[in-house]
């Protein structure tokens, strides 16, 4: 775990940083997210519209974001679409943010600093280590995160406290991970693959507040159950791949 001791100043020579924001009907919160991103740190913001039937895309364009469409529903599918869009002119660092204004985009410098200083290639913004508004993290999210993180430590030796969506990763490391998950398993897949490949990963504390609107994942019983199942499935599936790879190496 890494903890900043001061406010992060903008380096004179800043690597290119792009932000990906998957959205689904976030017209009320998205403008707040975009306005709070520290523009001096970011080259561009890519908003991936995941099938909204409101004015999310319009609101994003009004604030200068680049908007791409991903009709296939799923958090991971939206993130993958954003990365494909960026691939023609990739950044050095990618930051992932949610569009519901539960994260504090102004803390982006804190999240990217361990990469800038060469301490890590992947940085997870930990909501459990940071300041939380009461009730921002629902009980099912707290329990699910804790279980997943305990299992990751037992299986892979990497200690995390959260699967938070606010995170930063180098483009080079992201390509090495070969991300595939198209829905709820996206965040845990990234952390598992980083552990399997020995990619340097740290956490920083980030603030967290109640989101605007109802969560598509933890806001309903069905969403919570599906998310929990997919996270656990991803954990054990990746572990099975690791065990299989070890067995193949032994037989050589």
Automatic annotation (TrEMBL):
SUPFAM superfamilies the UniProt entry points to: Nucleotide-diphospho-sugar transferases
Keyword Thylakoid: no
InterPro entries to which the protein is assigned, alphabetical: Glyco_trans_2-like, Glycosyltransferase_2, Nucleotide-diphossugar_trans
Every Glycosyltransferase 2-like domain range: 19-130
MF-aspect GO terms: transferase activity
Signal peptide interval: none
Keyword Transmembrane tagged: no
Transmembrane segments: none
Pfam families: Glycos_transf_2
Keywords in alphabetical order: Transferase
Protein name in the entry: Glycosyltransferase family 2 protein
Species for this entry: Lujinxingia vulgaris
């Amino acid at each position: 775990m890494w903890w900043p001791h001061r406010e992060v100043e903008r380096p004179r020579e800043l690597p290119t940083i792009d932000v990906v924001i998957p959205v689904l009907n976030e017209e009320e919160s998205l403008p707040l997210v975009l306005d709070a991103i520290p523009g001096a740190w970011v080259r561009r913001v890519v908003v991936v519209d995941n099938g909204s039937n409101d004015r999310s895309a319009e609101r994003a364009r009004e604030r200068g974001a680049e908007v791409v469409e991903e009709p296939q529903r799923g958090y991971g599918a939206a993130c993958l679409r954003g990365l494909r869009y960026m691939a023609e002119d990739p950044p050095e660092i990618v930051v992932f943010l949610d569009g519901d204004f539960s994260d504090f985009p102004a803390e982006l410098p804190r999240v990217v600093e361990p990469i800038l200083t060469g301490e890590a290639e992947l940085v997870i913004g930990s909501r459990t280590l940071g300041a939380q508004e009461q009730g921002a993290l629902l009980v099912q999210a707290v329990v699910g995160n804790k279980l997943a993180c305990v299992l990751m430590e037992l299986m892979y030796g990497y200690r995390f406290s959260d699967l938070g969506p606010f995170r930063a990763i180098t483009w080079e490391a992201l390509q090495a991970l070969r991300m595939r998950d198209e829905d709820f398993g996206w965040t845990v897949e990234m952390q598992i693959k980083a552990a399997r490949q020995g990619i340097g990963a740290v956490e920083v504390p980030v603030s967290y507040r109640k989101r605007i609107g109802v969560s598509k994942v933890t806001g309903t019983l069905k969403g919570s159950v599906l998310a929990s199942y997919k996270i656990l499935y991803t954990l054990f599936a990746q572990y099975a791949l690791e065990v299989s790879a070890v067995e193949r190496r032994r037989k050589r």
